[in-house]
Amino acid sequence: MKTFALMAALCFTLVSTAANAKEKQSGRKYGSAGCGLGSVIFGRQEGFVQIFAVTSNGLLANQFWAVLSGTSNCATGDGEETAKVFIEGNREALAKDIARGSGETVVSLASLVGCNDATAVGASLQKNFSTIFPNESVSTEQVSDSILGTLRSDAALACNNAG
Fold this sequence. Notes:
Elements (H helix, E strand, L loop, with lengths): L1 H19 L16 H6 L6 H10 L3 H8 L9 H11 L1 H10 L3 H9 L5 H10 L1 H4 L7 H14 L10
Helix pairs in contact: 1-3, 5-10, 6-8, 7-8
């Protein structure tokens, strides 16, 4: 049983680290293991040390509580910063939903940036799809800037946290 638990923890660690390996960490106080006790102890050091950070984050579910309470480097940023992280993590699904003018990711994005009407947000983003996604190789940063610029420029959307 101990072997199974150890293997499960190792698999979880490897999957977590691999999933976050591409993440750009500019401005963040934590490494690829995410926020939590591990980020306080190990900071942004990269490499094998992040396995220890993940393990520390998992102790007594402290990462869960840190996210809920906004402690241990898990404090949420402003609406624009949060939206950029959301866009980066959901780019493909968001592109499909923007093309349709509606969907779960559009509703979530509208909520994150404090827009009153997700339907209007979907319509506005759909109208500007070719500006937001001019080609397949457009960077996620450019996509984020275009989306937030669209939300900022349309006063009727009343997006309070779009920047």
